[in-house]
Design brief:
The complex is a heterodimer of chains A (377) and B (424). Chain A has 377 residues and is of the alpha/beta class. Chain A is built from 16 helices and 14 strands. In chain A, the strands form three sheets. Chain A has a seven-stranded mixed beta sheet with strand order 3-2-4-5-7-6-12, with helices on both faces. Chain B contains 14 helices and nine strands. The chains are: A alpha/beta (377), B alpha/beta (424).
Chain lengths: 377, 424
């Protein structure tokens, strides 16, 4: 119960909900926290958060435009760009033919000349057709031109698995894009994250890969008045501590944050007090926050939906081993998607991605409360 | 040549027009070349303005100077000398690059432009500063023609900090924000969407930002690229949205060792233009004046907002694909035939025989360029290599993009960061 309240309060506090703010809130009686909740916050879906952000940014800066498949007349394949065509016209909300390489490159070329394109990939799986432009002509250009030409572009779209969409529509691209210097890679979870990080991305002078999640689009989160302000930006490169804890650190991003929080509630009943970190930014990775948390709790579980080898969890493990080895009381557990292309059958798909029980079991293993299972393929 | 010389006009009459209802600009010249066997000029019978006819007569007969001198020349003396200087700069610079490479001052991949200078000078000398040029890895001469100083290009090739990209780009990645040279791309076809985006920006500035902008963009690429998917995607979008771009194919018949004829189902690249709804023109890329005439029309079209053009320039590279290419597959006879059509010799002959310049003036230009290139080499030689701290610079325009250091502050605030010793 307290956990639920804390989560809402955490959401309502926005920027200041790191560390101290949350800690102080926890000491107050539940009633006053409830009072805070009902006074300031309204609920907003992630879809509406993204839509309102695009709307506000396009209104504020005429250089911002949206380009992609079905963004205009279809109102967006996932309705993220709903209403923008009517408001801003077809020159600023550009429906493209099915030409990922072409329109990603067009976005980059226009960014070279100072426009601020928001390129939508219907899913990030399709970005593989344009990956040359994301990496070679966007990420590397500021370096190759020695600062003469920067690329203020945002590539956004749903990333990772949805429900039953098969192997070619379910891959997570966080690790691939997260390894490229010159790119910033952001992964929002809540509506507040969506608003703040997308605004920061659009205003940023560098190429940003903005990985959303299809299943989160319809989920509602409370947003504070601060988050609803049209100049609300979250800093790029800072993770958020969604839930404070002292026994174990769980890092997650995107949809897995929700799972980690639910796992934390279950663990609470078993007396394990978990700290959940919402990464928010894969590149740059907030190693400082992660390491500080591990130094406090001494145990770590990383959660992601992508493939395990060379994944985000691998990078976090390396960082913690490099910086905080002496603080670890147990080996780090990485939870990732299964090392297989995503199956279609519902029961197999469920086994191919982390579920709440997996996070709970891993946390218990790390606390030496249960025996490790046999290694999976 | 194995494929037929064809003349393409926008006039909707047979045999070669396949523009499917496009309204042609009546002044569009297209390319007129003598058929190699009969030396006749075939031309559509629809009326063309008389001055255009005379111009075309001159263009066709550049190599056969015994016909009577045309009263109406294609270039003025100043323009002629400017173009000649640019041709010579391209040639001498590239020759110097070869020398420097074999002396070890230049390294990595170096792709030289010898033989193709007419395309670069023919097109780029007609551009304004605000117009953009996007190229491939064979980009030294495009950068020079657009106005990037020879010193800056040579230093970049030597990897020195005074280079146009401070030594961070190299031979294949020439960028200049000042001269709107937007790269320099190693992947073939990569520059085409970027160029299309630059053209998109011109249109956006006009229509959305309501600025006065008629900047055009030139995308240079080769015959091999004309088989690549991105090329077709951009032909489609450029024609669909009527973007001010000119797609310039430098068809030198060889993609490293792959002959164009072995790689392409229909080797006539200009035909791909009308298939997407834009004019396709074929021009003799060894003749700078013919290229210039076609370029004038195409650039004019783009500036007026009439949309893109595809120009195929038949040209040839005298050297191998790169300095590492042994160039064993090309027939020496073919090389000799094209060497006889050297654009510089042709243009020099034109200038002298049409009394636009004297031998002495041209020699003076050659001497001047020799000095410019030598000075560029000296400058590059004496320039310092980049300092250690430059390694981490310019990854991001916003350096906080390096994230947060272990002390909780932004890494870029760490003094060690700028010394190049901080860990990222």
């Amino acid at each position: 119960m307290l956990g639920i309240v804390r989560q809402n309060v955490g959401g309502a506090r926005g920027l200041s909900s790191q560390g101290l703010g949350n800690y102080v809130m926890r000491l107050r009686p539940v009633a006053s926290a409830m009072r805070n909740y009902s006074a300031g916050t309204k609920e907003m879906t992630v879809r509406d958060a993204l839509n309102s952000t695009l709307d506000e940014e396009m209104a504020a800066d005429p250089n911002v435009y949206v380009m992609g498949e079905e963004v205009g007349e279809y109102q967006g394949a996932y309705k993220i760009t709903k209403g923008l065509l009517d408001k801003y016209g077809p020159e600023r909300v550009v429906d493209t033919p099915i030409t990922e390489a072409g329109f990603a490159g067009i976005g980059v070329g226009s960014a070279y000349h100072g426009l601020r394109p928001v390129i939508e990939f219907m899913t990030f799986n399709f970005s593989m057709q344009a990956i040359d432009h994301v990496i070679n002509s966007a990420a590397k250009s500021n370096y190759m031109s020695a600062g003469q030409i920067n690329v203020p572009i945002v590539f956004r779209g749903p990333n990772g698995p949805a429900a039953g969409v098969g192997a070619q529509h379910s891959q997570c691209y966080g690790a691939w894009y997260g390894s490229v210097p010159g790119l910033k890679v952001l992964v929002p979870y809540s509506s507040e994250d969506a608003r703040g990080l997308l605004k920061a991305a659009i205003r940023d002078p560098d190429p940003v890969v903005f990985l959303e999640n299809e299943l989160l689009y319809g989920e509602s989160f409370p947003v504070s008045a601060e988050a609803l302000d049209s100049s609300f930006c979250l800093p790029i490169g800072k993770a958020k501590i969604e839930r404070e804890g002292k026994d174990i650190t769980i890092t997650a991003f995107s949809k897995m944050v929700g799972y980690a929080l639910k796992a934390a509630e279950i663990l609470e009943k078993d007396g394990i007090n978990a700290e959940v970190i919402n990464l928010r930014s894969i590149r740059p990775l907030d190693r400082a926050t992660i390491n500080a948390s591990v130094r406090k709790t001494n145990r770590l579980v990383t959660v992601e939906e992508g493939f395990p080898q060379h994944g985000i969890g691998a990078e976090i493990c390396a960082s913690v081993v490099e910086d905080s080895f002496g603080y670890l009381d147990a080996p780090i557990e990485r939870i990732a998607g299964a090392d297989v292309p995503t199956p279609y059958a519902a029961n197999l798909e469920r086994m191919a991605f982390p579920q709440i029980e997996d996070i709970v079991r891993a946390a218990k293993r790390v606390c030496y409360r249960s025996v490790p299972l046999a290694a999976t393929a | 040549m194995a494929f037929a010389r064809s003349i393409h006009h926008l006039h909707p009459l047979p045999p070669v027009s396949n523009t499917r209802g496009l309204k042609p600009s009546p002044l569009f010249l297209g390319s007129i070349r003598p058929d190699s066997h009969t030396h006749t000029i075939t031309r559509s019978s629809v009326s063309v303005s008389s001055s255009a006819q005379r111009r075309s007569a001159v263009a066709a007969n550049v190599s056969d100077v015994k016909t009577k001198p045309a009263a109406n020349l294609l270039v003025t003396k100043e323009e002629g000398l400017e173009v000649y200087e640019d041709l010579i700069l391209g040639r001498v610079f590239e020759d110097m690059c070869a020398q420097m490479y074999y002396r070890g001052k230049m390294f990595g991949f170096v792709h030289l432009y010898n033989g193709q200078e007419a395309v670069s000078s023919g097109f780029i000398k007609l551009l304004k500063q605000g117009d953009s040029v996007v190229s491939t890895y064979r980009d030294h001469v495009h950068a020079l023609s657009k106005g990037v100083p020879a010193r800056a290009v040579m230093s970049e090739l030597f990897g020195k900090t005074t280079g146009c990209c401070r030594g961070q780009g190299g031979s294949m990645h020439m960028f200049s924000a000042e001269h709107n040279v937007l790269g320099g791309f190693a992947f073939i076809g990569e520059g085409i969407p970027v160029a299309t985006g630059a053209a998109f920006t011109s249109k956006y500035k006009r229509e959305v930002l309501k600025e006065d902008c008629d900047d055009v963009t030139l995308a240079f690429f080769g015959d091999g690229t004309a088989n690549n998917g991105q090329f077709f995607e951009c032909l489609n979008m450029a024609a669909l949205w009527k973007l001010p771009i000119i797609f310039v194919v430098e068809n030198n018949l060889w993609a490293i060792g792959m002959s164009h004829l072995r790689a392409t189902s229909d080797p006539e690249i200009w035909k791909k233009g009308p298939a997407f709804g834009m004019p396709g023109v074929h021009v003799d890329g060894m003749d700078v004046l013919k290229v210039r005439e076609v370029a004038k029309e195409a650039i004019g079209r783009a500036r007026r907002g009439e949309g893109p053009t595809l120009v195929e320039c038949e040209t040839y590279r005298f050297r191998g694909h790169s300095l590492a290419d042994p160039d064993e597959l090309r027939d020496p006879d073919e090389k000799a035939r094209y060497a006889a059509r050297d654009p510089i010799t042709q243009f020099k002959k034109y200038l002298i025989e049409n009394k636009l310049a004297s031998e002495a003036e041209l020699k003076a230009i050659e001497k001047k360029i020799d000095e410019v290139v030598e000075d560029a080499v000296e400058f590059a030689d004496e320039s310092p290599a980049p300092s250690r701290s430059q390694l981490l610079e310019n990854v991001f325009a916003d350096p906080r993009g390096f994230g947060i250091g272990p002390d909780g502050r932004y890494r870029c605030e760490d003094p060690k960061f700028t010394e190049g010793t901080a860990q990222v």
